[in-house]
Amino acid sequence: NQRYILAERPTGMPDEDHLQLEEAAMPEAGDGQVLLKTRYLSLDPYMRGRMNDSASYATPVAIGEVMGGEAVSEVIESHHPDLSPGDLVKGRTGWQTHSVASPDALYKIDTGLAPPSAWLGVIGMPGFTAYVGLREFGQPKEGETVVVSAASGAVGQVVGQIAKMKGCRVVGVAGADDKCQHVVEHYGFDVCVNYKDDDFEDQLKAACPKGIDVYFENVGGKVFDAVMTLVNDFARIPVCGRIAHYNQTRLPEGPDRLIPFMQQILVNRLMFRGFIQSDHNELLPDFRRDMSQWLKDGKVTYQEDVVEGFENTLTAFQGLLQGRNRGKLVVKVS
Ligand code: NDP
């Protein structure tokens, strides 16, 4: 059994000193439990937050503990009537090649609806995040302009496709030309702008001739600043993520912009709404019904970035925080 232990809390980018790969004894399944072999491990931006010892919506990973995370695994030994060897399940089993769990902490996946890895992406947590954030808090209407950042990623690609189905003009923002090209060609985004271009602000303005009605916020930083100059009255801003700041060690220098920002919220009657997908689990049945239909009808497609080999987990995670992934990042463990 191989596993990654949180040995030390990172400041800035996590590395081998913080997350140590070690050999451990094979876990043993007790009464009512199953032994699992990890097939695909999901890597997600929120994991960076779990490495910090700061107040958040979830408890941090403790020092010396296996790094947390969701995976699709195969049951290889069962001491419970509900699951049999060969079954595929998803659960929060962490960064390890084998684990032990009780069936009530696992969800048996239906590979007839989508392949195993997709249960960590388009029909899993990131897809659900896009669905909840847009439907509940973005509330896009036909003809409106929806902007989404980290547009080619696990969440962004789904946000854009749902917004297109709603009849919106969809503008993506991403950090590479090939990512931009991909979302336009494969997901039907109207335009996508690379925020690393020198004239990014001008390009975004040109892409949104009628202003911005919904901004699905995934990144923060300069993208957020540029969007805020273009929002319309009554714009909705679901605040999903702020990845540009996850490795930040201190606040940037510069004037305090809180007063004009609050003024803009008032004058433009903006609605900001932070949300965490897991608070909305009552929508999971709706989501799974809609998404499986969309996948079947070809209305939603998706891109995965599959990294081979458990030993490459940390490098792949570092890449996620630097924009190296192309689509939903998963590690193929076995
Ligand atoms: P992605 O698949 O989009 O991967 C992360 C991407 O973020 C990178 O590929 C990169 O794309 C972009 N990025 C990385 N660093 C920066 C930076 N400094 N500035 C701007 N962009 C950056 O990840 P997800 O789709 O899984 O997650 C997207 C966002 O959604 C994250 O902020 C995440 O925390 C959040 N989230 C929130 C949830 C919730 O319940 N609220 C649940 C799931 C995710 P690029 O090349 O375009 O910069």
Automatic annotation (TrEMBL):
Pfam (any one): ADH_N_2
UniProt domain Enoyl reductase (ER): residue ranges: 15-331
Superkingdom of origin organism: Bacteria
InterPro entries on file: ADH-like_C, ADH_N_2, ER, GroES-like_sf, MDR_fam, NAD(P)-bd_dom_sf
Keywords: Oxidoreductase
SMART domains: PKS_ER
UniProt-recorded name of the protein: NADP-dependent oxidoreductase
